[in-house]
Amino acid sequence: MRRLPNPLVLLVLSIIVVVATATISAPASAQAGTPPLRAGTRVRVTSAQWKSNELVGTIEQSRGDSLFVRVSGHDTSVAVAVSAIRKLDVSQGQRSRPWRGLGVGAGVGGVIGALWGLSITPDKRGMIVNTRGEQAMVLGISMAIIGAPVGLVTGVLTKSEGWKAVAPPEGRVRIGMAPTQSGLAMRGRLTF
After folding, report:
1. How far apart are CA 90 and CA 92, in angstroms?
2. Residues 6 or more apart from 29 whose CB is under 8 A from it?
3. Cβ of 16: how many Cβ atoms within 10 Å?
4. Do the Cβ atoms of 109 and 144 come closer than 8 Å?
5. pLDDT tens across 64-107, in order?
6. Within 10 A of 124 (CB to CB), how many other CB atoms are there?
């Protein structure tokens, strides 16, 4: 006859799974609207204009068909052709992610504990668990409980910069190719 797991163990495991799922999938608080691109705005620019492909700095000015960006740690600014910008992101500031850290810590601890429990021989005296599955569950829950606060502290202490994609500023002259029924057509736009 098969023995059912302890209801308290199932309850704790369920709580850990719910907390981990909620913290990892919870969206960051979104800020409404697109921030303006004015002097002093921190940006990340992806362009075909240079080899490093990505430039992070502060906007000095936006003039005509160019965006002038002062790269962090340099004295001069870089002129970026608006037509060459593939992607433009605006910084949302430095932030920590404690709840994501808690979820990741609990998840990693739980997986490590479960794998550890499956890899060692169960206690034959039957004091705590009788099978590898029960042992994996007990060690998984125990390690998840240990991993959660470690992840929480790591999430609080680790800061990362948040970015929001925005449309690049419109240049005065835009030229491009567009498909038509009979082939390709060249299009242009002049803005005043």
Report:
1. 6
2. none
3. 21
4. yes
5. 778 888 987 788 888 888 888 888 899 888 889 899 999 999 99
6. 7
